[in-house]
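Annex B. Sample input.
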Amino acid sequence: MIAATVFFMAMLSSSFVQAQFHIIPQPLKISAQKGSYLLTGNAVIGTDAQSRTVGLYLQNYLAQNYNLHLQLRVFARIPATIAIKLVSNHTANTDAYALNIKSTGINITGEGASIFYGVQSLIQMLPAAAPLRLTAVTIADAPRFKWRGLSLDVSRHFFTVDEVKKYIDMMAHYKLNTLHWHLTDDEGWRIQIDKYPLLTEVGARISFYEKQGKFRKLDNLIDGGRDGFYTKDDIREVLKYAAERYITVLPEIEMPGHSEAAIFAYPELGCQDSTGAKHRVRMLDPSENTFKFLENVLTEVIELFPNQYIHIGGDEAEMVDWLKSPVAVALMKKEHLKDEREVQSYFIKRIEKFLISKNKKMIGWDEILQGGLAPSATVMSWRGEAGGIEAAKMHHPVIMTPLPYMYFDAPQANEELEPIGWNPVVPWQMVYNYEPLPAQLNTEEAAYILGAQGNIWTEKIPNLPHLEYMMYPRSLAVAELTWSAKADKDIERFKNKMDQQYPLFKLWNLNARLVDIDNVTNIVTNSDRYINTLNYPLNGAKVRYSLNGRMPDSSSEAVNFPVKINVPLKDTLTLSTYTTWTLNNQYIRQRVKITRDEFKPAKTDDRKLLPGLIYESYITKKEYQKLGNEKPTATGIITFPHAFTPSNDDANNWIKVNGYIHIITEGDYEITSDFLISPQLYLDNIPVISPDKNRYAEPQKAVLHLKAGYYSLSGYYPANDVNSGEKLIQLTMAGKVLNHENYLFH
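Annex B, continued. Sample output.
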């Protein structure tokens, strides 16, 4: 009896320890210790002079979120008896920290920002409500990358100072350290410039003038827009707030394209058309007046922003407009520029020269590579990784922000059930699996990758709750992939940690997208019943569900998890769920199909079969369905792990496969694919995996009772970076993943 009790208590202790260590991003080293510490109002925060600001932050955080008012004292040498010690250790690595929690108190050591990072790890270990008992632990931690960023587009919809501050607070909690502030674009100019008052008097009120019929219809926005701008005092307030949280704010002033708001305020800046045609003008004319305007604007921006970088945009410039501009044509002749791309390069290099004269460095989107890269430019690679790879090989600093992984204006799951967004689905798993260091770079070139950044564009995002829904939990994946060691990445552990963040989200009033229900997947099966148990990781969540295809809503009957489903299955069944947690307006919808088919072994002579699948490769501009009778560019045998190299141009690299799955023992099997962009796979000519279903957005599997024999297998998929290194097909029996060498033949 005593032994059983001890074992039971040990299990409780172990589960308690595991529950405490849900720190995101994953620390470099973390070790549980014996005992725990109870944080109460009697504790004193002791700091030295350097760490006082961080001490004030922690003091205010505990007061605001837990109504726990701790005394703060500054010491030349902090006494050992002080409960919470924040100690500057003057190390060379200002990002590395150590956190130790014992039964006698809490000790965080580091230098500068690193003590703040240690406090963020401490905050994540705190329960969402009293009592605030912390498991004893030793942590030694440091980031992998210097640049750990998120962007914020305030041009398409304006966000207030307080909303930007909250955005910064959430970044700080997860050790993200760079806010890329997109301040100007076609839909609005958001920063006060004293020399050009019309930029904010007119350019910041685009939606107002659109309603007056004096500006074009804002066709990219989901509503009438949200006007506003930041005064210089507003900017200073935000910068001070960010600095106290060790976040650098990178301002972006778009040029030469995406400049319609500036041109609306000052039409003489716009690209003139010698043909007299009237059309939308978003391009700046490369005139001396334009360059003087930009230099004056940037001078005022530089006076506000102390950081070393200024972002000048450079993306999606409609350079063809310059070919009709008398000013641009004259410039091409004067400077011996061959084409409009070289005009772009001239434009960017001239701005770079001005920034260098002000002791600033320039960042631009990867289009600034066109026509020749400015000598000291840093490249943000967004159109995939190619621009970043090219820049790194040229020994230019690079921030990886590629589509689709780092674009959070994309929906997070089934587009029909999610808020409207741009681009295909980008679930958190896809973000987490992204690796910022491309395999194409050698060690020297890889050193030029500064880090990665998640981007958000707000054409379809009109308010803060919607913004938070799109950014979280995906931003947590950015935090871990930029901070934690590559070898420490573990997607299952990350999911468990992410699930445990939701009580903190509730504490912070953060409208994060809820996690999906476990075990809700698209299934192809030959069973005559659908049997499943729906589980959910958040305590107190309720679900409304239907099996008739109709999507439940808030008026439908809610039940508690877990939910057991056991119903007859004759053809196709649609499971629709509507899950709520804490607040009625916080919900997640899911819809999956359970499809029933019959599968029969093929008649084949197994004595003539060889391991692997036959493949045909097609490099083409066409979609697979339009290939027709085209001949493949290559053929061969696919064995795992396969190593198809994606084509380097804009063509598609389609891979067609044919062969058999060999079932040795009759039983229940599960067929899945590891590809992020799903293949089209047929078993016995019946579709079991489909390319229009992203693996993580809508997981798919075939759950089949198969007799012994060979089943025909065919299909196709795009060979690209997203799918590289993943398994095309995976067979599982009784929870055991089978070796592909034993079941794939041709």
